[in-house]
């Protein structure tokens, strides 16, 4: 019950993040992280998440809230990301930067 409320709060926060702000620290190379982790832990913004989704044919275009439930892959050491999959049942943050996040089953 708390997860949807937290997700909505994160979505509201994401809507107000400036589009020109870049990520504050790059994600871990070849790591998989949930959208909300990319925003809160790595400083990625709505524009960067949308770009990652739109440059792949795997994930369809999504709204701002849905971007938080996408599993993103860090494709290089500069912090470039690609959308890997949209987690329909929710994205699970493992909470450790050495372990990848995953989609709920």
Count of the separate structural domains: 1
Assess the beta-strand content as a share of residues: 15-25%
Distance between the termini: 17 Å
Strand order of the largest sheet: 1-2-3
Query: How would you spell out the order of helices and strands?
Result: HEHHHEEEE
Work out the helix count.
4
Percent range for helical residues? 25-40%
What sort of overall outline do the alpha carbons produce when their principal axes are compared?
Answer: globular
What kind of sheet is the major sheet? 3 strands, antiparallel
CA radius of gyration is: 12 Å
List segments where confidence is low: pLDDT < 50 over at least 5 consecutive residues.
1-7, 12-21
* Counted beta strands: 5
Q: Structural class of the secondary structure composition?
A: alpha+beta
Mean pLDDT: 81
Topology summary:
Elements: H1 2-15, E1 32-34, H2 35-40, H3 46-54, H4 64-67, E2 70-74, E3 81-86, E4 91-92, E5 102-103
Antiparallel strand pairs: 1-2, 2-3, 4-5
Written description of the protein model:
This protein has 105 residues and is of the alpha+beta class. The chain has one domain. It is 31% helix and 17% strand. It contains four helices and five strands, in the order H-E-H-H-H-E-E-E-E. The strands form two sheets. It has a three-stranded antiparallel β-sheet. A two-stranded antiparallel sheet has the order 4-5. A hairpin with a 6-residue loop joins strand 2 and strand 3. The longest helix has 14 residues. The chain is globular. It starts with a helix and ends with a strand. The N terminus is likely disordered.
């Amino acid at each position: 019950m708390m997860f949807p409320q937290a997700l909505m709060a994160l979505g509201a926060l994401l809507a107000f993040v400036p589009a020109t702000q870049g990520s504050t620290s790059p994600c871990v190379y070849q790591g998989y992280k949930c959208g909300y982790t990319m925003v809160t832990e790595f400083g990625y913004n709505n524009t960067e998440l949308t770009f990652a989704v739109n440059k792949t044919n795997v994930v369809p275009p999504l709204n701002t809230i849905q971007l938080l439930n996408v599993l993103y892959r860090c494709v290089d050491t500069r912090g470039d990301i690609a959308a890997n999959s949209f987690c329909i049942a929710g994205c699970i943050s493992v909470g450790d930067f050495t372990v990848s996040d995953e989609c709920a089953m």
